[in-house]
From TrEMBL:
The chain crosses the membrane at residues 172-195, 216-241, 247-276, 296-317, 570-594, 615-635, 641-661. Residues 1-28 form the signal peptide. Keywords: Membrane, Signal, Transmembrane, Transmembrane helix. This is DUF1430 domain-containing protein.
Length: 673
């Protein structure tokens, strides 16, 4: 049976695999909605000749001909963060797809629900959108052909999200890295700690292949117990969590991650065992290790972990700040009741820009004139001032730019939000475009005025208001952005002393400009009934508006996801710290076992602890200094401080482990004297 460290490593493979599969399925479901294995046909172009009832019948015919099921997936208009609808065409009434129509779709997670409907009912939302083919490639191609006969096509070059895309960044990628490093490091440490046992086997004539085969047989015996126990525990937890929904998909993901981690551990096991076998038998019986090879192997893991820990710590700090800002913002947003933000559909909105502008532009203009719409758009300084840096924290070349944020609003915004002049008077509607500057931005009035005039030239309608009037704004004001700063990465929906560009209602923007602000999530309606009334009056135009979600609902969903990401990154940071500890222990084991007699002799001679271990401590200090220096050279802001903290923690772990092994060497040496 493997030693305790190896047992931990190979058991951790199963635990990490179960956790990764769970998080991947739960995370992906909120984006792809339906986790079942299917081919995706994304229709974004149509020639306007289709009849939705005929399209529904054509989809049903394809499903019947190929003996499969086809679904049409769309987010709910009013609750897109947690609800989707799946319209199904099913050929076999006894299939599990038919049961979805009767019993509902078996969602994996609790945070997202998919409601099922018969395909003929999709007339109010189709035909553009996502078609899911739960069958072979023949059915997929037949569906494309059938839809093309009704003037429905995929846009060339369109891409869809796959499960593996969720592992290319963020906390899931970090967790995969932590899982690999933890299990591989523990495996290597377990092999190195068994040096004496391996020497005994070699003394009895066991070859490297024989020793490796015996070790792997022990791993198989361990898994024969650990895997069934892990599977039973996971089944029990999943049964309570979701009633074993999507258990087949989850099992496949878990086995895939288990294979990945297990192969990595087995390779590390074989390489470390080969490294141990390079030491002569007699020195190995005393616990001696191959110094150079083992040291290189330890630091090949230790150095990447330092940088991974730096990334994780930065992510934790940033995410924690976002959680704090979002919590404060949520308290503000909840005061606005049912104020909602419509969004442009990805299935229609970009396929025919002219049609979208013609359908939605005049309506948005009229809503602006009637005071039913609030415009709030946070602009980057580079959108107004060519000399402004593209990155927020980069120095501006030539003329300096104001550090104030820039907020574009309409007169309805000024009616909803209080914006005061230095005299304490509230700004209201006006016929001119106004540039409202706090004292901190007053010196930049000329370039800002020029930038606003240029922006108006690119975004305004012909014969619209072009005069820009500069007015002062009171200092120290916080203005609500209605969440407009999300596109710039702002978590707090408040701006301190912004530069405000106030547009008269309906007198400036072109149809395209109105639609652009709608697609940028910069248009909100205090009364969502205005949008619903428009959707009711104009069924065709309503297809362009995919959702009308209250700001509070969106803010709560975003906050919940950020909290989840923070918890995941904290777990990853703990895992990276564990790997740092394991590598510190491994480095100390290699050092102490190689120089045990020398360490004991120096202790008897009265050498100090730092002098006794100066080689290891010098190496560790050099790595820490290089790590901090490289970070300070290549990054800015808080990263060097984080790197210094990580380096200090790493040195502390090494010193703690070294002190423990030092006392052990002294105690064993004294007992043998």
């Amino acid at each position: 049976m493997p030693n305790r460290t190896l047992r931990f490593a190979y058991t951790a493979c199963a635990a990490f695999a179960a956790l990764l599969a769970f998080l991947l399925a739960a995370t992906a479901e909120q984006t792809v909605h339906v986790l079942e294995d299917s081919a995706l046909v994304w229709i974004t172009e149509n020639d306007g000749t289709h009849d939705t009832d005929e399209v529904a019948r054509a989809v049903q015919e394809v499903a019947d001909t190929h003996g499969t099921a086809i679904g049409y997936s769309v987010l709910d208009v009013n609750d897109p963060s947690s609800l989707a609808h799946l319209y199904l065409a099913v050929s076999d009434p006894g299939s599990r797809y038919a049961r979805w129509l009767d019993e509902g779709y078996p969602s994996f997670g609790r945070a997202f629900t998919v409601r099922t409907h018969p395909m003929p009912e999709f007339g109010d939302v189709g035909p553009n959108g996502y078609y899911l083919v739960f069958g072979g490639p023949e059915a997929e191609q037949a569906l494309r052909t059938a839809l093309a006969e009704h003037g429905l096509f995929e846009a060339p070059g369109s891409q869809t999200t796959q499960l593996w895309h969720f592992l290319t960044g963020g906390h899931l990628l970090h967790l995969v890295a932590v899982a690999l490093l933890t299990t591989v490091t523990a495996t290597g440490a377990g092999v190195l700690l068994s040096t004496r046992d391996h020497a005994v086997r070699r003394l009895h004539g066991r070859s490297y292949p024989g020793t490796l085969a015996g070790e792997l047989a022990g791993v198989l015996r361990l898994w024969a117990v650990a895997l069934p126990v892990s599977a039973a525990a996971v089944l029990l937890l999943l049964g309570g969590y979701n009633g074993w929904n999507q258990i087949g998909l989850y099992t496949g993901l878990a086995l895939l991650f288990l294979a990945l981690l297990a192969v990595a551990c087995l390779v590390a096991h074989a390489l470390c065992l080969a490294l141990v076998h390079t030491t002569e038998i007699l020195p190995a019986l005393k616990g001696r290790l191959p110094v150079r090879g083992a040291t290189v192997a330890v630091h090949l893991v230790r150095v990447p972990v330092l940088f991974l820990t730096l990334t994780l710590l930065g992510s934790v700090v940033t995410t924690a700040q976002d959680v704090r800002d979002q919590r404060l913002g949520l308290e503000v947003v909840e005061q606005y009741g049912q104020t909602s933000r419509p969004a442009l559909s990805a299935h229609y909105g970009w396929a025919d820009e002219g049609a979208v502008d013609d359908e939605l532009g005049p309506w948005l203009r009229q809503a602006d004139i009637d005071g039913d719409m609030v415009l709030a758009a946070q602009l980057h300084p580079a959108e107004l001032l060519p000399s402004a840096p593209a990155e927020p924290d980069a120095p501006a070349p030539g003329n300096p730019t104001p550090g104030n944020p820039i907020l574009l609003v309409n007169d309805t915004y000024l009616a909803q939000e209080e914006l005061l002049s230095p005299a304490g008077e509230r700004y209201g509607p006006d016929r001119a475009v106004r540039l409202l500057l706090p004292a901190s931005a007053a010196e930049h009035a000329a370039p800002l005025t020029e930038g606003v005039a240029g922006w108006l030239g690119a975004n305004s309608a012909p014969e619209s208001v072009s005069e820009v009037v500069v007015r002062p704004a009171a200092d120290g004001q916080n203005l609500f952005t209605y969440g407009a700063g999300e596109r710039l990465g702002a978590a707090l929906p408040l701006l301190y002393e912004p530069v405000v560009i106030a547009l008269p209602n309906g007198a400036v923007l072109s149809d395209s400009g109105y639609v652009n602000h709608l697609s940028g999530r910069q248009t909100v309606f205090p009364d969502p009934g205005v949008v619903e009334a428009f959707r009711t009056r104009n069924p065709e135009a309503s297809r362009y508006i995919s959702m009308v979600e209250p700001l509070s609902t969106s803010a709560r969903t975003t906050h919940a996801r950020t909290v989840h990401a923070l918890r995941a990154e904290l777990f990853n940071l703990f895992g990276a710290g564990t790997v740092l500890l394991l590598t510190a222990v491994a480095a100390c084991v290699v050092h102490v076992r190689t120089r045990a007699q020398e360490i004991f002799a120096r202790h008897l001679s009265g050498w100090s602890f730092p002098a006794t271990h100066r080689r290891l401590l010098t190496t560790e200090a050099a790595i820490a200094a290089a790590f901090v220096g490289w970070t300070a050279w290549t990054t800015t802001e808080t990263e060097p401080v984080h790197a210094a903290g990580i380096a200090l923690a790493s040195l502390t772990l090494t010193l703690g482990a070294l002190a423990y092994f030092h006392r052990r060497v002294v105690r064993e040496g004294a007992s043998q004297a």
